[in-house]
Amino acid sequence: MTKTIEILVESDPAQGLGLQIEGDAVSSRCRAAGIAVSVTTNTDPARLAEAARSADVIISNHKFDIGRVKETAPSFAWLQVTSAGVEAYLKTLPDDVILTNASGVHAEKGAEFILASVLMLNYRIPYFASQKVQRAWTPVFESVVRGKTATILGVGAIGGAAVPLLKARGMRVIGVTSRGTTEAPVDACYRLDQISTVLPKTDFLISTLPLTPETEGRIGGEALDLLPHGAGVVVAGRAKVLDYGALAARLESGRLSGAVLDVFPEEPVPADHQIWSVRNLVMTPHCSVDDHAGYIDRCLDIFMDNLPRFLAGEPMRNVVRPEKGY
Amino acid sequence: MTKTIEILVESDPAQGLGLQIEGDAVSSRCRAAGIAVSVTTNTDPARLAEAARSADVIISNHKFDIGRVKETAPSFAWLQVTSAGVEAYLKTLPDDVILTNASGVHAEKGAEFILASVLMLNYRIPYFASQKVQRAWTPVFESVVRGKTATILGVGAIGGAAVPLLKARGMRVIGVTSRGTTEAPVDACYRLDQISTVLPKTDFLISTLPLTPETEGRIGGEALDLLPHGAGVVVAGRAKVLDYGALAARLESGRLSGAVLDVFPEEPVPADHQIWSVRNLVMTPHCSVDDHAGYIDRCLDIFMDNLPRFLAGEPMRNVVRPEKGY
User: Fold this and answer.
1) What is the C-alpha separation between A106 and A288, in angstroms, rounded?
2) A67, A90, B149, B236: which has the fewest C-beta neighbours closer than 10 Å?
3) How near does any CA of chain B get to the CA of A164, in Å?
């Protein structure tokens, strides 16, 4: 007889309405899949260690010290989180706990937002937003995006899903990944250490890169200066991959024609931060890639797909590789 | 022996660099098509009547009093203009001059801008642009456009070309035309006098309507109030179809979530006009639909397609019907 697996659903109310995980939803999905489980729900993060004592698996919507919980939860072997970015989890991840993330859950929205951002940059929306504040009527007649080049740094779930959308508009799409390969239908793919050859032919630079030792601070002023005059920049991954100060200077000077930023080194951005006043910049407050509608359902899709694999000791999807950082 | 047709190329330098028509281009395209023509170019609008005396055909990049020119140019029978909107030409168009416009030349760019605008409205860019000025961090987690409804008022060349782009994003697209029919692949089509049944189910209202007695002022406060709370509005045709004062009030109050306007009742919009300060509004200075790259070439494509038809007395493309106004 198989041991009944114990699942702790860790749902912090502070994460907001759309990000609450319901224990009942997990129970009923497991029942429908014919998998015997015992589900406990904890909504008080301060009581997590206590609630986790006999847990085999934790599904969590918030960050916590995984190593410390593991100390008093010896059978805890798998953590499913509801975010795609996991750098905060990795700091405390013991070797004997599998971490799976929500990568791919944001793919449709993230890809659509990248399409929106490239079109916005092409039609100079960041510039016209600044001109509106100045009450200045200065038409710019841009041609369509057909034939222009978009370079996507980090062709993961979101970047990969954006490729066909951009190609459908007639664009040339270049991928940049750590290994120089991707399964997405890009026109060309380079390694991250080859970006200096890619940037000069890039009209729109899109970063969906995760934050890792390899990517942190990777795109500074020197890299931005390799872009053609008037190029545009989109950041929909992690902010600290780019030097925002260097980016802001090039937006102010007109060296770059515009940027669309959904993520920032400090969030929420403080009201007195100078980035609010940077010209030729569209800012969205870290909400344009995350899709809360049905979000947790889609996270549970990943979890339910993995649960039989976990029980059978088979390879799982969305496993975070600590040595890579994502 | 066929009479050699006389073409006057009327190219006003004041219309800007991208809108100049070169007589040589017309000559060489006619030669390539094996059509004997005599081409004269005039770049001084004040001398138009004199230059037109023996012309059979005029290709013009600017407005003029067609009736007055016709008085001293008895064989003048066809005017090709380089704009899609022709309400200013219709006022002086005699019955015996055929007017053809540039409708369709803007289709690719106009359709792409409509796609961009709908995505911007969905991702609340007009709102976030206002919030940036206020230095306010207020995330809004919108779902993708899939399943939402775009209603296009005026399914002509631009509106029609936008339909497949919006449907490719999984949207429901409703067309509204004067006759209630269209060849574009919409999900449903209604007559303009039926809009009150369409507006309540519209998430994004897009007007590409020409300005005619039937359309002028058609979308006032009453019509806007039939839209669902939080709907968005795009205007890429003629501004006077909508009541911009009523629209502005509903953007300020939050009754509508945002608007993208490329056209205005008075252009350029004066610096002291109150519309510059309206919240939740993206303004582009009448440049997002017009595509100057290769623009005149594409106008000449229409002209060259029509020239043999004109000579043979056959039905022509893009003929403006004065009774309809477009």
Assistant:
1) 10
2) A67
3) 11
Mutate to test the interface with A, among B132, B148, B261 (most CBs of A within 10 A): B132
Helix, strand, coil tally for chain A in percent (to 5): 35, 15, 45
In sequence order, what are the beta bridge partners of A175? A152, A189
Q: Tell me if B125 and A291 make a contact (CB, 8 A cut-off).
A: no
Give the closest-approach CA distance of B286 to chain A in angstroms: 7
Distance CA A210, CA A86 (A): 9
Locate tokens 């490719």: which residue? B168
Query: Nearest Cβ partner of B116 from A119, A135, A284?
Result: A119
Are the CB atoms for A49 and A29 separated by under 8 Å? no
Least CB–CB distance from A291: residue in B133, B143, B294: B143
| B20 residue type, one letter | Q
Bridge pairing between strands B232-235 and B258-261: parallel
Question: Å from A232 to nearest chain B CA?
Answer: 16
C-alpha span between A259 and A121 (Å, rounded): 7
The answer to whether the CB of A233 falls within 8 A of the CB of A208 is: no
Distance, CA of A296 to CA of B317 (rounded, Å): 54
Q: What is the ipTM of this complex?
A: 0.80
Kindly give, in sequence order, each residue whose CB lies less than 8 Å from that of residue B252, ignoring residues fewer than 6 positions away: B278, B279, B280
The contacts of residue A66 (CB under 8 Å, 6+ apart) are A79, A89, A92, A93, A94, A97, A99
Structure tokens at A276: 């609010």
B76: distance to nearest CA of chain A, Å? 33
Q: Do the chains contact at B139 and A113, CB–CB below 8 Å? A: no
Local confidence pLDDT in tens for the 326 residues of chain A: 457 999 999 999 999 888 899 999 999 999 999 999 999 999 999 999 999 999 999 999 999 999 999 999 999 999 999 988 898 899 999 999 999 999 888 889 999 999 999 999 999 999 999 999 999 999 998 989 999 999 999 999 899 999 999 999 999 999 999 999 999 999 999 999 999 999 999 999 999 999 999 999 999 999 999 999 999 999 999 999 999 999 999 999 999 999 999 999 999 999 999 999 999 999 999 998 877 778 899 899 999 999 999 999 999 999 999 888 88
Cβ within 8 Å of B, A 247-306 = 267-269, 271-273, 276, 281-288, 290-294
Whether residues B271 and A144 touch (CB distance < 8 A) is answered with no
- Residue B115, classified by CB atoms within 10 Å of its CB into exposed (0-12), middle (13-18) or buried (19+), is buried
Nearest residue on chain A to B108, alpha-carbon basis: A144
How far apart (Å, rounded) are the C-alpha atoms in residues B50 and B56? 14
Using the structure block, give the residue that is written with the tokens 């919030």.
Answer: B131
Tell me if residue A89 falls in helix, strand or coil: helix
- Nearest Cβ partner for A120 among B109, B116, B294: B116
Q: Cβ of A17 under 8 Å from any chain B Cβ?
A: no
Q: Is A143 on the interface with B (CB under 8 A)?
A: yes
Q: Collect all residues of chain A within an 8 Å Cβ-Cβ radius of residue B292.
A: 141, 143
Smallest Cα distance from B212 to chain A, Å: 26
In Å, what is the CA distance from B164 to each residue of A96, B108, B208?
Answer: 51, 11, 16
What is the per-residue pLDDT across B40-68, written as a single tens digit (0 to 9) for each? 999 999 999 999 999 999 999 999 999 99
CB atoms within 10 A of CB A125: 29
Q: Residue B323: enclosing H or E segment and its boundaries?
A: none
